[in-house]
Prior knowledge:
Order of helices and strands: HHEEEEEEEEEE
Strand order of the largest sheet: 1-10-5-4-3
Helix content: 10-25%
Number of helices: 2
Shape: globular
Largest sheet: 5 strands, antiparallel
Structural class: alpha+beta
Number of domains: 1
Radius of gyration: 18 Å
Distance between the termini: 74 Å
Number of strands: 10
Amino acid sequence: MRKIIFAIPLALMLAAPAVNSGTAEVKLSEKEQAKFDKKIAGREAGKPISCINRTDQKNLTAVGDKYLIYSRSSNPKTIYVNEPYGGCRDVDRNALVTRRSSSQLCRGEIAQVKDLPTGTFVDSCSFGSFVPYTKIEG
Length: 138
């Protein structure tokens, strides 16, 4: 019995590197990259921020498993691009569910990906910084 007690923590330590740490780079297909490029075309990236106002968000567009793009109600010239740590699997085909603990969405907040027809959660992801992209005048 004592051997089993020591073997379980050892097995967990050996398996830990195999778990996705959220640092793996998420790749886009050519089609997804073209969609992203079209969304940010004519816009200039600003300084990343930690939080955005939840109530000012008009629309969410997912680009593959890599990017979440929020458009604003009050200023349609600016969109916010978020790259969740380690990606957000299947978010482009499902619903993104967040808890309303405050009036903001912030870096590090965890969102869940829900398959609406079945009602099951298929993944979760953690928001990265929000990068504003503003239309260039001219």
